[in-house]
Amino acid sequence: MSKSSSASNGFLVELENVTQRFRVIHERPDTLRELFSKFLRHEVNYYELDAVKNVSLEVPRGQMLGILGRNGSGKSTLLKIIAGVFRPTAGTVRVHGTLAPLIELGAGFHHELTGRENILLNGLLMGHSKEEMQAREQSIIDFAEIGDFIDAPIKQYSSGMQTRLAFAVATEVDPDILILDEILAVGDAAFQQKCFARISNFRKAGKTILFVSHSMPQVQEHCDRAILLEKGAIVADGNPTEVAETYKHMWSAELAVAN
Amino acid sequence: MRELLVETFRYRQLIWALAMKELKVRYKRSVLGFMWALLNPALTMLVLTIVFSTILQFNIPHYAIFLLSVLLPWTFFSQSLSYAVECIVGNGELIKKVSVPKLVFPVAAVVSNIINLLLSMIPMALLVLGMRHPFYATWLYLPVPMLALVLFTLGMTFLFATANVYYRDVAHILQVVLSAWFYFTPIIYALDFIPPHRRWLFKLNPILYVINGFRLAVYYGQLPRWQSVAASFICGLVALLIGFWVFRKYQDEFVFYV
């Protein structure tokens, strides 16, 4: 996997035949003795699962890409590969530019620390400097509408407040690539509006956004392009409305079978 | 090894913030807060002084200083390890979500304990003054054994933190290992107490060389022989090389096991 800062051909994210294989341990020892002897001989039963299978994907600068798929289809794994959390089993990943991953609500927040301390810690974790974070601190607090709570420990925050703070930190630092994994499902309508306003500014500024959502209207309204994942592979790629249709067909067909 | 230095320097702000976080969390909700870093060794001193100078009478003058001069570096070592053995597993949620160099966690764990060690030097200095033990100029030499100690501790931390990712039993075993190691190391006693024909066994203990400089400087007012200094740095560097090599080899897999 290589990371470089200069985009050679306008693609900020490039994946080539990427596969992520997991070992799923599935142990079914019949007796305690068997379990013990297996343990001693290091024989643990597992099967291998390709959470992402041979995926190639190029995302140009300024594109907002919606990622659709059911639970377990590989969306989060794909995002984690792009964010550098997983080193893929096979294939190459190229990411050009700085990246702000919002993979889960407030990853890196520590509940005993105050909002202000968490802004710094979270910024440092994303690779920014202390000076940079201090300069942006006030606008983060303002955007997240935390107010006086900023000096209270995060554990006293509501989940909405935590999401707001996480979103504000990730977007205030001016990343080239923003990764949003279902986090906008939390937070009230007013704040969602504000987030989408900021996201559209990002798009105007030519930044790349990867957006996972289960809300098809959100994807249709905001994305330039969508992909549909199924069992770790891309099964549809293109216009968000068409991809959303394919997705709907897929599960309505399955519902029909189930009924 | 160069990678360790470069990455540590590059992420120094993050490491510092993580270390401060650790201290803040450790002392949060305690009325005395950071004072505990000072009070803890002071109270330990009190207990040990009572036990060893009134109940078990060793014929060692100023026994409390004799003991504390190596007990403090030992406490640093054992506390760093006990805490840091969980540093990868404990930060698992973070490792699964953010791409961050894994070495910041063990390094930050050790750094937070260095601060504790430095703070605990204050009550020891007060004790030296209070007991009218000579305040030797060799105190100035302490940064040298401290460096060897930090290298050794960091190496062991990398090793145990890695092992604990794969086998969570390691954290439990570590406690037993540390308590056996404590008695095997001349901390509450001196190496002279061991019959001469058995001393070679005790001299196999790497941490002996690392912490011995503390007792010589603080209690005896002597500088160690150069062989002993060399031995302490060799132990420290070998531990660090092995520990970091193992850590580096497995760090990309951590995310699948935490």
Question: Would you mind describing this structure in some detail?
Answer:
The complex is a heterodimer of chains A (259) and B (258). Chain A is an alpha/beta fold. Chain A contains 8 helices and 10 strands. Chain A has 2 domains: 2-97 and 176-258, Rossmann fold, CATH 3.40.50; 109-174. Chain A has a 6-stranded mixed beta sheet with strand order 6-7-8-4-9-10, sandwiched between helices. Chain A has a 4-stranded mixed beta sheet with strand order 1-5-2-3. In chain A, helix 4 (130-144) packs across helix 5. Chain A is globular and about 55 Å long. The model of chain A is unreliable at 1-6 (pLDDT under 50). Chain B has helices spanning 2-10, 12-27, 35-55, 63-84, 87-90, 92-95, 104-130, 143-166, 169-184, 199-202, 206-220, 226-250, 254-257. The two termini of chain B are 25 Å apart. Chains A and B meet through helix 3 of A and helix 2 and helix 6 of B.
In short:
The complex is a heterodimer of chains A (259) and B (258). Chain A has 259 residues and is α/β, with parallel strands linked by helices.
Mean pLDDT of chain B: 89
The helix/strand order of chain B is HHHHHHHHHHHHH
Number of strands of chain B: 0
Strand content of chain B: under 5%
The sequence of SSEs of chain A as H and E is EEHEEHEEHHHEHEHEEH
- Spatial gap, N to C terminus of chain A: 45 Å
Largest interface: A-B, 25 and 20 residues
Total count of domains of chain B: 1
* Terminal residue distance of chain B: 25 Å
Please state the structural category of chain B: mainly alpha
Question: Main sheet of chain B, how many strands, which sense, barrel?
Answer: none
- The second-level CATH architecture of the largest domain in chain A is 3-Layer(aba) Sandwich
- What is the makeup of the main sheet of chain A? 6 strands, mixed
Quaternary state of the chains: heterodimer
What's the β-strand tally of chain A?
10
Assigned CATH superfamily of the largest domain in chain A: P-loop containing nucleotide triphosphate hydrolases
Number of contiguous helices of chain A? 8
Beta strand % of chain A:
25-35%
Low-confidence stretches of chain B: none
Strand order of the largest sheet of chain A: 6-7-8-4-9-10
